[in-house]
Amino acid sequence: DTEVTQTPKHLVMGMTNKKSLKCEQHMGHRAMYWYKQKAKKPPELMFVYSYEKLSINESVPSRFSPECPNSSLLNLHLHALQPEDSALYLCASSARDWNEQFFGPGTRLTVL
Amino acid sequence: GIQVEQSPPDLILQEGANSTLRCNFSDSVNNLQWFHQNPWGQLINLFYIPSGTKQNGRLSATTVATERYSLLYISSSQTTDSGVYFCAVSAASGGSYIPTFGRGTSLIVHP
Question: pLDDT, tens digit, for every residue of A33-60?
Answer without folding.
Answer: 999 999 999 999 999 999 999 988 888 9
